[in-house]
Structures are given as structure tokens and as C-alpha cells.
Specification:
This protein has helices at residues 22-32, 80-89, 131-145, 158-173, 181-198, 201-204, 241-250, 268-297, 310-333; strands at residues 16-17, 20-21, 40-45, 51-57, 62-68, 98-103, 111-116, 153-154, 210-212, 221-224, 227-230, 237-239. A 5-stranded antiparallel beta sheet has the order 3-4-5-7-6, with helices on both faces. A 3-stranded mixed beta sheet has the order 8-12-9. The chain has a two-stranded antiparallel sheet with strand order 1-2. The chain is globular. It is built from 9 helices and 12 strands.
Length: 334
């Protein structure tokens, strides 16, 4: 799962990605490209924090080129899973069509994925999604929940999903001489809370073992006149589809259970189920942010993503979500 820490600072131009200036990157991408028309890369970044995303153009078509946000080398291809999931789901018009998943012919065999560019509105906040958009989104999620992409990761119960998140945080410590005091404190909170939740979360949460998006935030929703398309499907898995809505209403900066727009929940009963899943959604948001900050401290993030304020922003986000989670857990204990 990935997370949004508010709007990404706008860079007018990207000058270098994975050691390549834009001219060299364009040459390498076109060398690997299987299309008939050459691609021209826009140097303005497009998208969120999980990848370095650029628009690639031909005279007739626009595409999205995604490269890893982490520095190489990448032994496993980070987009192969997403490519297969997209290939399956695009047959039901749930996502843009994936075009190519490959590697550049450079020193580190840098992986990339190219998909069709989808026109539409990407909301910047939950409040900006109109009632008609929420209905189309829910319809897309319903269709997704009824499908079973081949080879998709499966979590049999909430505690198994929580363990997956916890393992990611533990892996982020490997190869590091140690976290900063601030990050160590956040990781400590995460570990203690994971243990607390692990003993009760299976009884507290509904878990239908159906397909979920796994990273449902506003930036991964494209609203079109007749449908909603879903983006960034690399966390698609078998679990609980209502966890997607729990994540959607809790992951954004400033989001709390006191403010959820009308139309997100279908009924009081559904709202109660989703609210029970919010702690798990918050643990996912906190865990991924800890991993990002760990990689930032190890200087493993591509410089084009790093801005002077990114570290404090991510840490502030972690503290905000920790406070949100504490308030929920305290309320449940009283």
C-alpha cells in the first residue's frame, strides 16, 4: 500500500532519473519500446510518491511511464505483479490498459511499466468526489470484489494482513545502521500497536476474502462520465473490499472519523463494519510511511522525489495517523 501526504511539491522539470538525463532516458526507453512510433517523454512529473511517473507521447497516443522511486539495482521486477493484475482487470474496463512491462538496457537493468493514459478527473480530496462519482467508484469496487485475478496475493484473515504490513516494516530495518530517534519512536509505536491489535483484530473485523484494491486513495481514482477507473493496482489482493473504503476515509492528511462525506457509506451497518476496519487501514498507512522514511534516511529514494521538506512532512503524517489510531483504541477501551 502507498499513501498520500498531501499534494506533491511541483517540480517544473525532472533533470535526471536513475542516473540518466532526460535525453538518455528517452533513448533507453525507445530502445526497449515495442511500439511502432517513437516515444517523447515529458520531463514534468506526473503522479504520486510511489513511482517516478512521466507522460510519454507518440503522435497518436499518450502513455504513462513509471519507474521505481527506489534506487537500483532491482533484482525482482516491481511492476510485474501490477502488470498481470491490470491485464486481467482491463478486460472489465476497471483500469487503463497496460502496454509493456520491461527493463532498460542500462547498468542496473532499471525496470519500468508503460500503460495507456486515461482521461478523466482525479479528485484531490474525498470531498471533491460527487455523489455520482462515489456511486461509480462503488460499482467498480463491487465488480473488482467479484473477480479473482490469477496469482493475486491472498490474506485469509485480518491478522495475516497485519503481519504482512509488520513484515514490511521489519524488512525496512535490514541493511540500516539504525533509525533516527524520531523514526525509531514511530517504529516502536507501530510494533507495540501491532501486538495489541494482533490478539483481537480477527474477532473485531469482517473479512470476506474477496478481491480488494489495496491502495484506494483519491489519486488512484479516475472519474469518467460513464465509469471510474482504478490506478496503481500493485497492492490488489484477496482480503476485504470494505478495507478499501476504510483506507479511503482515513489515509488522507487531516482525515478523521468525525468527517466522512455523505454517500461514502451505504448504511449504518456498513459504516460500523468500515469503522472497525479503520485501525487496520491506519496501520497500513503508518507502516508504509515508516518504510518510506527509512529508505529516505538510507538515501535510497530517487533524488527527484526528495524535497527539503519531505522528511518532516512524512514524520508529521505518521504522528497524525498515530494520534488518530490512539484516539480510536482509547475509545474502544472505555
Amino acid at each position: 500500500m502507498f499513501v498520500s501526504w498531501g499534494e506533491r511539491p511541483v517540480r517544473v522539470r525532472i533533470s535526471k532519473v536513475h542516473g540518466h538525463d532526460m535525453s538518455e532516458l528517452g533513448r533507453l526507453v525507445n530502445k526497449a519500446w515495442r511500439g511502432s512510433d517513437s516515444l517523447t517523454l515529458d520531463s514534468a512529473p506526473h503522479g504520486g510518491w510511489d513511482s517516478v511517473s512521466l507522460i510519454a507521447r507518440t503522435p497518436r497516443q499518450r502513455y504513462i511511464l513509471k519507474l521505481p522511486v527506489l534506487k537500483g539495482p532491482h533484482k525482482a521486477h516491481p511492476y510485474s505483479y501490477e502488470y498481470e493484475v491490470m491485464n486481467f482487470l482491463r478486460r472489465r474496463d476497471l483500469c487503463p490498459k497496460p502496454i509493456q512491462c520491461d527493463r532498460l538496457d542500462d547498468e542496473f537493468r532499471t525496470p519500468f511499466i508503460i500503460a495507456e493514459y486515461a482521461e478523466g478527473t482525479i479528485p484531490s480530496s474525498l470531498d471533491q468526489i460527487p455523489a455520482s462519482g462515489l456511486e461509480k467508484m462503488r460499482q467498480a469496487l463491487l465488480i473488482l470484489s467479484q473477480l479473482h485475478p490469477r496469482g493475486v496475493q491472498s490474506y485469509k484473515k485480518p491478522s495475516e494482513y497485519l503481519k504482512h504490513i509488520t513484515d514490511q516494516v521489519l524488512r525496512s530495518k535490514k541493511g540500516s545502521t539504525g533509525f533516527s530517534p524520531q523514526l525509531a519512536a514511530a517504529a516502536g509505536f507501530f510494533g507495540v500497536t501491532a501486538k495489541e491489535l494482533g490478539s483481537s483484530i480477527d474477532a473485531a473485523c469482517v473479512w470476506s476474502r474477496r478481491t480488494m484494491h489495496g491502495d484506494l486513495q483519491e489519486s488512484n481514482i479516475i472519474i469518467q462520465p460513464d465509469r471510474v477507473l482504478l490506478l496503481d493496482l500493485g497492492s490488489c489482493s484477496i482480503g476485504e473490499p470494505l478495507l478499501d473504503l476504510a483506507y479511503l476515509v482515513s489515509q488522507a492528511e487531516g482525515a478523521t472519523h468525525h468527517h466522512v462525506p455523505d454517500g461514502v457509506f451505504k448504511s449504518y451497518e456498513e459504516a460500523a463494519i468500515i469503522q472497525a476496519l479503520v485501525p487496520l487501514a491506519l496501520m497500513s498507512a503508518i507502516g508504509w510511511s515508516i518504510c518510506f522514511l527509512a529508505n529516505l534516511e538510507r538515501e535510497m529514494i530517487e533524488p527527484e522525489v526528495v524535497t527539503p521538506d519531505i522528511g518532516p512532512r512524512v514524520l508529521g503524517y505518521i504522528h497524525e495517523k498515530m494520534d488518530y489510531l490512539r484516539s480510536i483504541l482509547v475509545t474502544r477501551q472505555t
